[in-house]
Amino acid sequence: MGNNRRDFLKQAGLAGAGMMMGGSAAGRQTPFKQSREQTFNMHGYAAPPLETVRVGLVGIGARGSGTVERLAVIEGVEIKALCDLYADRVSDAIDSIREFSDHDPDAYSGSEDAWKQLCEREDIDLVYTATPWELHAPIAVYAMEQGKHVFTELPVATTIEDCWKVVETSERTRRHCYMEGGDCHDGIAAVLLNMARQGFFGELVHGEGHYIHDRVSDTEGRWVRDEDNHNWFGYRPWRLKENVNRNGNLYPGHGLGPLAQMMDLNYGDQMDYMVSISSRDFTMADKMEELSEMDDYYEAYEGLEFRGNMNTSIIRTKRGRTIMLQHDISTPRPGRRFHLISGDQGIFEARPPRIATGHEGWLPEEEFESLVEEYTPPITRMFEQKVRAAGGRRGERSYERVTASDWRLIDCLRNGLPLNKDVYDAALWSCITPLSEWSVAREGNTVKVPDFTGGSWKTNERGMDLSVAEGGTTNLI
C-alpha cells in the first residue's frame, strides 16, 4: 500500500507539474495578431519643426470644447477649423475663444463626414479628435493619410485590428499619433516617474491603476448625479451605450498610463499576457428600469445586458512585473485612477499620498513632502514657471487649464522633438479593452498582448523626457 501510495503521489505530482507548465505557456492564447516587421520606428522620431502648429478639432462636446480653449492660449497655436455634427456646438466654441484670443476658425457641421473635409485642408498640421470612441481610429487614420499629425482622446481604437491600423498608418506616413489621457507629464506622477528612473523604489515589481468613480461634476464643481441630463453612472448618453453588451475594462488608460511609463513599457519592457474577470451587474440594469418610469429616455435600456460593475484585469510583463487595473463607475466608490507603484526598496500609494521604504511603515508627512520637492523633474518646474509667468496675458483668459501634456505636445511639434508619448503607447494602452472583453467572455482565460513595436521595445531608448531638452523652451506667452 505504501509503495502504491508513493507511486500515485509521484504520478499526480508530475501530472500537476505538467498542467502548470501547460498553463504557463501553451495556455496563453493568441487570438489576435501579435507582431509584424516594423516598417519605420516612430519611437524617438522627430518630425520637421513647425513654427506655428495649425490645428483642426473634431468633436466639440464637453471634452472638445475644453480642449479648444486650452490650445487657444498656447503660443504658436492657430485654431484653423472646428467640426461637430451639431452646428450650435461649433458656433458656441468659436464664440468662446473669440472672447480672449484672435483665433478665427472655420466651421464644419451638419454631416457625419464633415470631418473629412477638415482633414483634407492643406493649412492644418494637427487634427484633434474628441468624438465617440468608435470614430477615433477612422479619423486618426484618415488624418495621417492626409499628412496630418493626430492628437486624440483615449482610446485611440476600440479593436485590436484598428490599433494595428493606426500603428501601421503612422509608420507609413511618418505622422505622429498622440493620445491624451493618463501620463506622467505633471503632478505627483511626474515626481514618481523621476523617482523610479533614479532607482528610489529599486526594481519595480507591481503597479495598480483604476478608473473608479460614480459621480459627475456640475458647473460649480460639486460632485452630483445628473439624472435630468441622462448622466447616471457618470456617463453622457453615448458613454452609457458603451456599457451595453460590452463586458470588460472599458477605460484603462488613465490608470495604466503612468504605470506604463514608470515600467518603461515599449522601451525596455513589454506586456506579455493578461487575464480579466468581471463581477455581474448589480446596479445598472435595475437602475435603468427604475429611471424609465420617470424618464422615457431610459426605456430603450430596459431589458438590456450591462457589463459587470467591477472589472479586474491583471497583466504580466516580459520582465515579470505585474499590473492590476480595475474599472467601476456604477457602485458608490470615491474616484481613483493611478493608485500604486511598488518596488523591492519602496512603495508609493496614492490615497492618501504616502511613501514607505524598508519595513518601518509610512514616512512622516514632512519627509514625504521633502521627497516630492527633491524629485520634481526639471520639465515640470519649467512648465509651472511658464504658467505663473503667463498669468492672464492673452486677453483675460487664465492659463491654469493648460495641461503639461497639451503644452509639451505643441512644444515638441514646434521644436522638432520626439514626442513623450507615441503611437505605440496609444495602441498598447488602448488594446487592454478588447483583450479584457475576450478574456471575460471566456471565464478569465489568459490572452497574449500584441507587441505593436515589432520587437523594437528591446532596444528603444526610454520615452517621456524629464529634462529640459535643447530647443524645447517654447513660451506660453
TrEMBL record:
The keyword rRNA-binding does not apply. It holds the Pfam family GFO_IDH_MocA. Keywords: Glycosidase, Hydrolase, NAD. Its cofactor is NAD(+). InterPro entries: Gfo/Idh/MocA-like_OxRdtase_N, Gfo/Idh/MocA_oxidrdct_glycsds, Glyco_hydro_109_C, NAD(P)-bd_dom_sf, TAT_signal, TAT_signal_bac_arc. One of its GO terms (molecular function) is hydrolase activity, acting on glycosyl bonds. Residues 53-177 form the Gfo/Idh/MocA-like oxidoreductase N-terminal domain. Residues 192-350 form the Glycosyl hydrolase 109 C-terminal domain. Belongs to the Gfo/Idh/MocA family. Glycosyl hydrolase 109 subfamily. This is Tat (Twin-arginine translocation) pathway signal sequence. It comes from Fodinibius roseus.
